Amino acid sequence: MSKIKFLSSRAGYDLAAENYDKKEKYLNSFEQGKTVPLFEDVNGKKILDVGAGTGRLAVELAKKGAIVTALDVSEQMLKILQRKNKKIITALGGAESMPFADEEFDLVAAEFLIVHLKNPKRFFDEAYRVLKNRGRLLITNINQKDPPEINTKDGKIKIESFYHRPDRIIEILELLAFKIEKEIFIKESGVWINQIIVARK
Ligand SMILES: C[S@@+](CC[C@H](N)C(=O)[O-])C[C@H]1O[C@@H](n2cnc3c(N)ncnc32)[C@H](O)[C@@H]1O
Predict the structure, then answer these.
(1) How far apart are the first and last CA of the chain?
(2) What pLDDT digit, counting tens, does each position of 60-82 carry?
(3) Measured from the CA of 94, which atom of ligand 1 is nearest?
(4) What's the order of all strands across the beta sheet hosting 131-142?
(5) What residues does each domain of the chain span?
(6) How far apart are CA 128 and CA 154, in angstroms?
(7) CB of 115 closer than 8 Å to CB of 174
(8) Residue of 101, 106, 151 whose CA lies nearest to 126
(9) In the CATH scheme, what is the code of domain 5-20+38-200?
(10) Are strands 105-110 and 46-50 parallel, antiparallel or unpaired?
(11) Which of 14, 38, 73, 164 to mutate to test ligand 1, by most ligand atoms within 8 A of the CB atom?
C-alpha cells in the first residue's frame, strides 16, 4: 500500500487541480445555496476572491458584472480558472501578504480558504487593509478536523489543514474592528458543517 503524502497548499493544490472541479457538487453542498444571495448588486464592484482556486465563485461573480481579481497560491488552480474566463484578473500569492494596494476592493471573499490557514488573523488583517471603507468580507469556515485523502497522478495526498472554532473566528474579526453583519450555520444531522460570515469594515 502506498503511503499518503502530507503537502502544503501550494504543492497539494497544484497536484489536485486537474480533478478539483469533479468535487463541485460536494463543495456546493456545504453552502446549500446560502452564499449566492449574499452577492446581490455586485455589478461594477471590485471583488477580490482569495484562494479562488479554479473559480467556482469567481466565475459566477464575473457573470454578474463584477470586476474580479482571483488570488491563489496554486498556479495550476489559477490556470484552470483562466481557461473559464479571460476577464478575471489572476494573481499568484498568499492570503497572508496580498500584492494589492490599501482600500482597493469593495468586497473580499474567501470560500473554503481559512481551513488551510494556520493563522487566519494574518489574512483578516490583510483583508481589512485592502477593503474600502465599509467594504464587506465574506468567508466560509468548514468543520473539518482531518483533511480528506485526495487521489492524484502522484498517489494519495492530504493537504495541510487547520480546524477553527466558529466563536474564535468571530472573536478575531471583532478584535480587528470588523462588524459582523451575518453568521449562518449550515448543518447536517444537527451538527454544523460550515459557518458563513459576512463582516463589514
Ligand atoms: C478548497 S480550495 C477552494 C477554492 C475555491 N475558493 C472554491 O470554493 O472552490 C482552497 C484554495 O485555497 C488556496 N490556498 C490555500 N492556502 C492559501 C493561501 N495561504 N493563500 C492563498 N490561497 C491559498 C488553494 O491553493 C486552493 O486553491
Answers:
(1) 50
(2) 999 999 999 999 999 999 999 99
(3) 20
(4) 89-92, 67-72, 46-50, 105-110, 131-142, 191-200, 179-188
(5) 5-20+38-200
(6) 38
(7) no
(8) 101
(9) 3.40.50.150
(10) parallel
(11) 73
Q: Given a cut of 90, is residue 89 above it in pLDDT?
A: yes
Supply 149's cell numbers. Answer: 485523502
Q: Which 8-state DSSP code applies to residue 129?
A: H
Q: Give the pocket of ligand 1 (CB within 6 Å).
A: 9, 13, 27, 50-53, 56-57, 71-74, 77, 94-96, 111-113, 116-117
CA distance 123 to 95: 5
pTM beyond 0.85, yes or no: yes
Name every residue whose Cβ is closer than 8 Å to that of residue 44 and which is 6 or more positions away in sequence: 65, 66, 67
Instruction: List all residues 6 or more positions away from 38 whose beta carbon is below 8 Å from its beta carbon.
Output: 138, 182, 196, 198
- If you measure from the C-alpha of residue 128 to the centroid of ligand 1, how many angstroms do you get, rounded to a whole number? 19
pLDDT tens across 102-157, in order? 999 999 999 999 999 999 999 999 999 999 999 999 999 999 999 999 999 999 99
Residue entry with cell 468567508: 139
